[in-house]
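Q: Study each token:
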Amino acid sequence: MGAADSERASLKAQIAAWLVHLYTASGGVVGMFALLAAAGGEVRLAFILLGVAALIDASDGILARRVRVGAALPRFSGTRLDDVIDVLTFVWVPVFIMASQDLLPHPLWIAVPVLAALYAYGQVDMKTDDAFFLGFPSCWNLIALYLFWLRPEPAVAALVVVVPGVLSFVPTRYLYPSKNALLWKTSWTLGLLWAALVFYLLMQPAPDLRLVWLSLIYPVYYLVASFIVDWRLRQMKRRSRLSAIGD
């Protein structure tokens, strides 16, 4: 390959990388429109937009790895860009909805998801080298959504934010379906079916609560599968250490 061909290939790679970054950045734009919708009292629209942002977040990493954005644009971090947008769409907008819609017993309860999320994103290894999330992956958009739909009693609502808040500080591995191949087929299949059901329910002014409860199957699967995988990995490491000591 000549110098001219090499330059053209490099330019194409950079254009492809910038397009992927633009796709990622569109999630931030969608997230801001979600915030505006929530501020205007259009909460269902806000959750629909948060869902769109989540789909962008779930797919942009696949595109980034395919076009090798890091090699094409080494001085621009897609990871940092992604984290900034995630904090907006997975934390700030959902917490705003929780507070503005009185989904928690008292506004002070928003301190739980805020502090938990700040700790999560402050960890250097929040996304581990073996492609897991470490600690509860700050899915406060889902928690806000089910609080909005189900409107539980104050004590239950408090528990719904306290449990994942505590789990944010516990170094348990959680599945990362878009990056880790472990259970990815099951996770993606159930996840897409769940997303379709959620979007359908959000289109209804008064969703069928039976379907809302049914939709919890995927979040429950995700948590249970993550805990089982984490336990098995810990057991494997324990056996490996014991074997090393025995040798």
